[in-house]
Design brief:
The chain is an alpha+beta fold. The protein has helices spanning 12-23, 44-56, 66-82, 89-108, 143-146, 151-154, 166-175, 197-205, and strands spanning 3-7, 27-34, 59-64, 113-115, 121-124, 130-133, 157-158, 210-213, 219-223, 250-255, 260-264, 270-276, 280-281, 291-296, 304-310, 316-325, 332-337, 340-351. It folds into 3 domains: 3-175, Rossmann fold (3-Layer(aba) Sandwich), CATH 3.40.50.620; 207-264, Roll (SH3 type barrels); 270-364, Beta Barrel (Elongation Factor Tu (Ef-tu), domain 3). 24% of the residues lie in helices and 28% in strands. α1 packs parallel to α2, α1 crosses α7 (166-175) and α3 (66-82) runs antiparallel to α4.
């Protein structure tokens, strides 16, 4: 039996995860995290989490992590967009908050680990290494957003839902008469519930006017901030001049330093190689040679065949078997060997098959 902190968000997944741990004989304490700056102990989600704990007959606590969430997730999210990158704050939150600050605090309090309602599986090996695996339900698989976890974290993580479908989890909640059994799930960022990312960023970054240019530097329009755009974007450009061939233009580069949004044809979105920052290897050890793996660059995106080549400084180059479209610096590349997560790294440069990088306008590369 282990002493476990079960993170309860007030949703159905985390509620069932806690219930299953109790069934398995563990000593479970339900903990609800205050994360957003305006979050309050008496909020709807906190109240739902409290009612779940009461129904399960376990202790309930609220842990205030608003300062850490602001510093490690929200400030980073703003800084990344201001720098022309496209971050995934859910991965950042998992690494630094849920399996960072929360796990550290739980350990300090004498708990053996932390459990969440993520859909992914853990497979302890004979050598003691805990492998992170895709969920049984491919449509709900969340191994990508957990690919940033290292072995030290995986050794102390519990994921009770990885072998179930969402339908089974919902039915389980109904059978247990959990008070959140019929609660719908949110698909938006928790700190931008209305989905207006641009408006949220504008309230923090303000107007940062600049030019929209083509690859030759000709001005085609103007914008109110490069942070409003992402690589691959087509809509909302409001260009004053059509392309010579009448084909649509896409955002192919961002240069916040010069205030430029660079647009070009669709083929300019092709990426043949990804240069990434220091990698996290789930086994705890970096490979000593290039590996033929599958790479995923979006939370629910498809896999791409690639060669992942680690460097002596911890960074990795990913050579894609065939070019992929519209990847942006700041995204995370997760590496898979079948259903097993091998590791991940943040993309620093997206290199076009012709050799230029999305970090700079093509003529400056």
């Amino acid at each position: 039996m282990a002493r476990i902190v079960a993170g309860v968000s007030g949703g159905v997944d985390s509620a069932v995860a806690a219930a299953r741990l109790i069934d398995a004989g563990h000593d479970v304490t339900a903990v609800h995290l205050l994360l957003q700056p305006d979050a309050e102990p008496g909020s709807r989600t906190a109240d739902d989490a409290s009612r779940v704990a009461k129904r399960l007959g376990i202790a309930f606590e609220i842990w205030d992590m608003r300062d850490a969430f602001q510093r490690l997730v929200l400030d980073d999210f703003v800084a990344e967009y201001a720098a022309g990158r496209t971050p995934n704050p859910c991965l950042k939150c998992n690494r630094t908050i849920k399996f960072g600050e929360l796990l550290a605090r739980a350990s300090d309090a004498g708990y053996d680990g932390v459990a969440t309602g993520h859909y992914a599986r853990l497979a302890p090996g004979a050598d003691g290494v805990v492998e992170l695996m895709r969920a049984s339900d491919a449509s709900k698989d969340q191994s990508y957003v957990l690919s940033v976890l290292g072995q030290d974290q995986l050794q102390r993580v519990f994921l009770p839902l990885g072998g179930s479908t969402k339908h089974e989890v919902r039915a389980d909640a109904m059978a247990r008469n959990l008070p959140v059994a019929s609660k719908s799930e949110s698909m938006d960022l928790c700190f931008i519930p209305d989905g207006d990312r641009v408006g949220w960023l504008h309230s923090r970054l303000g107007m940062r006017s600049g030019a929209i240019v083509d690859e030759a530097g000709a001005v085609l329009g103007h914008h109110d901030g490069t942070y409003r755009y992402t690589i691959g974007q087509r809509k909302g450009l409001n260009l004053k001049h059509p392309s010579p061939d009448g084909a649509p233009r896409f955002v192919v580069g961002l240069d916040p330093g010069q205030g430029l949004v660079i647009v070009g044809p669709h083929e300019r979105l092709a990426v043949g190689m990804l240069r990434c920052g220091p990698a996290v290897w789930t086994s705890g050890e970096a490979p000593d040679r290039p590996l033929a793996l599958a790479v995923q660059v979006r939370a629910h995106g498809e896999e791409y065949a690639a060669t992942v080549a680690p460097a002596s400084d911890g960074t990795v180059d990913i050579h894609l078997a065939t070019p992929i479209m519209g990847v942006a610096p700041g995204q995370t590349a997760a590496f898979y060997d079948g259903p097993r997560v091998v590791g991940s790294a943040t993309i620093g440069q997206c290199v076009h098959p012709a050799g230029w990088s999305s970090v700079q306008p093509p003529e400056q590369a």
